[in-house]
Design brief:
Layout (H helix, E strand, L loop, with lengths): L8 E6 L2 E6 L3 E6 L7 E3 L10 E6 L4 E6 L6 E6 L3 E8 L11 H4 L1 E20 L2 H4 L4 E5 L2 E5 L14 E5 L1 H5 L3 E2 L6 E8 L3 E8 L10 H17 L10 H17 L30 E2 L3 H10 L3 H15 L9 E2 L12 E2 L13 E2 L10 H16 L7 H17 L18 H20 L6 H18 L1 E2 L4 E2 L9 E2 L4 H4 L8 H14 L9 E2 L10 E2 H13 L3 H12 L11 E2 L6 E2 L5 H19 L27
Antiparallel strand pairs: 1-2, 2-3, 3-4, 3-5, 5-9, 6-7, 7-8, 8-9, 9-14, 9-15, 10-11, 11-12, 12-15, 13-14, 16-17, 18-19, 20-21, 22-23, 24-25, 25-26
């Protein structure tokens, strides 16, 4: 089997689990019971060994897919010479306000329906527990098949062998056939126009999938997603309809990734999808990186999702109360650190498109990344400006003071940087910028909220960081701020954040020169931005990074270069998948999506760029950074009065 391109995948999910479904009708990636748990289907990472759950016509066919309007319910349509059939995929979630049980949500439902003519659909169920490290045994049971993991495969929550139930009901049950290996099962069902039947998988037991009203579950799930989106008014008049559609899809993509218990947001739904085919830069992104807290808070508030923003704020507020020396750049979605995130290589899996290694865990977790302190303080500062109900308790303020004190004592050290270079430590510009942010926003929090702090010391250190950045971070030779203090040539897209964090005004000659240098040396004609070039740390980047492309758009808007910003934004929109999803990176030569998928921070970048552009259009393009301060603007979408009742 060949590997489908990432563009061919859609995501379904609920609360803190999800699955990738290909346009071929195959579920090729799914982890139970949680997103960061071991996989039960992993054909995404090994076409032969990984495991899958496929439904497709037996005859030659064409296929397409789409989301049911304003939901994360996915429809895949198959066309054959004899007819048309549609497979509807979703993970159930309630819309009536009642809590769904974990067992209810640890399931995937699939409705098979013939739209016209006749279609024979074949089902193939090939579960592989624990990243395909154990072979299952399959047993015929009432209403389907029960797969049980081998001796080494246990449910981490119960220490019992893992189980996955395949529901077949009446229509498929009689057609089930086991392969000789007894690790796969198949069935074929013949449907004529108007016929439908249900199948699906339930993790851990046969119930409730075997006995619920499946159509009611589908209706409730659709209603849940639509009601979640409806808690706001329509889009601003300045926003084109296409932008609005992409905003909705980005919101839904983020919501399906947000962990409902902790508010944490993983960087992506997958592990080890390579940054470039044939190169070993493969990482596990099913964890929360706190360095992007500012952009997360901004995007959630700008789209009117105050509850999710508040839960996220509470999540990193808890982290902020850790000893600053022990704050990690990466956390598990349940707050895990240490051994829980230790990196392992799965040698038995070949990797997506035969590009390994396949990794679980992430060795970046214990790195020193000085930027995390600035993002924490910035996120607290921005949340308070956005949310009138948010406040800093005495305990939280003491913790923030400890963070700022730590920055005072350590800002001039080398670190691994935002791109997490594993063997190099440098004075990275981005790390210094975020240290300045920690001090500047700490001072603002203290002075604006009458909080006690050693302001004289903080101001002295803030000035020292500024002096270092301006003296050692800008290169006359490159006419740009550079990647790190030791280089006069290395150019990095993170320099675009200088005006966004308001370190310098956009009209500053050095800022404009940096933007021009980024466009000249890091950007394609279509506005796709690579992360860095001419670095002595690693060879030049060739694949574009979506988040950096959105940073460039934001910096151009702040610079009142609106026509160029809008052109680039439209071009980046065209690079989304047919379903409106983004990965981490893209090959500018052929538009191949690369990196883990879907990527939360790419969608956050889109939401923030829409916000910048929409406000600039409403102001006829004449804006200043102050126009985007949270305290001075309305959110992009306000909650509607009807949703408050």
């Amino acid at each position: 089997m060949t590997y489908p391109p990432l563009r061919d995948y859609g995501i379904i999910g609920n609360d803190d689990r999800c699955a990738l479904v290909s346009r071929r009708g195959s579920i090729d990636w799914c982890c139970f019971p949680h997103l960061e748990s071991p996989s039960v289907f992993a054909r995404l990472l090994d076409a032969d060994r990984g495991g899958h759950f496929a439904v497709r016509p037996t005859d030659p066919h064409e296929s397409s897919h789409r989301y049911v309007d304003r939901t994360n319910v996915l429809e895949t349509t198959f066309e054959t010479t004899s007819g048309q059939a549609t497979v509807v995929d979703f993970m159930p979630i309630r819309a009536d306000g009642r809590e769904s049980s974990e067992s209810t949500q640890q399931a995937i439902y699939r409705r098979l329906e013939c739209d016209r003519g006749t279609v024979d659909l074949e089902l193939e169920f090939a579960p592989r527990f624990d990243y395909a490290r154990t072979d299952p045994t399959l047993e015929r049971v009432e209403n389907g098949v029960l797969a049980t993991a081998g001796e080494d495969g246990v449910d981490a929550d119960s220490a019992d062998p893992e189980q996955l139930f395949l529901y077949t009901g009446d229509a498929l049950d009689d057609a089930l056939e086991f392969r000789a290996s007894e690790t796969n099962t198949e069935a074929t069902v013949s449907l004529k126009a108007g016929d439908s039947c249900w199948t699906g998988v339930q993790y851990g037991a046969t119930e409730p999938l075997a006995s619920v009203d499946h159509q009611q579950a589908l209706d409730e799930t659709k209603r849940y997603w639509r009601e979640w989106l409806s808690h706001r008014d329509g889009a601003p008049e300045s926003m084109p309809e296409r932008w609005h559609e992409m905003v909705i899809r980005s919101e839904l993509a983020l919501k399906v990734l947000i962990h409902h218990e902790t508010g944490a947001i993983p960087a992506a739904a997958t592990t080890s999808v390579p940054e470039a085919i044939g190169e070993p830069r493969t990482w596990d992104y099913r964890y929360n990186w706190i360095r992007d807290a500012k952009f997360t808070v901004q995007a959630l508030h700008d789209t009117g999702h105050e509850q999710e923003a508040r839960e996220y704020f509470e999540w990193f507020s808890d982290i902020a109360q850790t000893d600053p020396a022990e704050i990690n750049p990466v956390y598990g979605l349940h707050g895990d650190t240490g051994d829980a995130l230790s990196e392992q290589t799965l040698e038995h899996l070949e990797g997506y498109r035969e590009t390994g290694p396949v990794r679980i865990g992430n060795a970046a977790a214990p790195q020193q990344q000085l930027d995390v302190y600035g993002t924490i303080v910035q996120a607290v500062y921005e949340t308070i400006q956005f949310d009138s109900e948010a406040m800093v308790t005495n305990e939280e303020w003491d913790a923030l003071c400890d963070i700022v004190k730590y920055v005072c004592e350590h800002w001039d050290e080398r670190d691994a940087g935002i791109w997490e270079f594993r063997d190099e430590r440098r004075h990275f510009l981005h790390s210094k910028l975020l240290c300045w942010v920690a001090l500047d926003r700490g001072i603002a929090l203290a002075t604006e909220n009458d909080l006690e702090a050693p302001l004289e010391t903080w101001r002295e250190e803030r000035d020292a960081v500024r002096e270092a950045i301006e003296a050692r971070g800008y290169s006359e030779r490159a006419s740009s701020f550079t990647q790190h203090f030791e280089s006069d040539e290395a150019l990095d897209a993170t320099a675009l954040l200088l005006p966004i964090y308001e370190f310098l005004p956009p009209e500053d000659d050095r800022v404009q020169a940096t933007i021009d240098a980024v466009i000249d040396r890091l950007t394609t004609d279509d506005g796709l931005v690579v992360r860095f070039v001419d670095s002595d740390i690693r060879r030049d980047e060739e694949k574009a990074f979506f988040l950096c492309s959105f940073w460039l758009i934001d910096a151009l808007v702040l610079s009142n270069r609106l026509e160029q910003a809008r052109e680039y934004f439209e071009n980046v929109l065209e690079r989304a998948s047919p379903l409106g999803l983004y990965s981490e990176k893209i090959d500018p030569e052929n538009d191949q999506l690369l990196g883990n998928f879907p990527q939360a921070f790419s969608h956050l970048g889109l939401l923030n760029s829409v916000t910048y552009l929409a406000r600039a259009l409403e102001s006829d393009g004449d804006v200043t950074p102050a126009d985007f301060d949270p305290g001075n603007v309305e959110t992009l979408f306000r909650r509607s009065e009807s949703s408050e009742s």
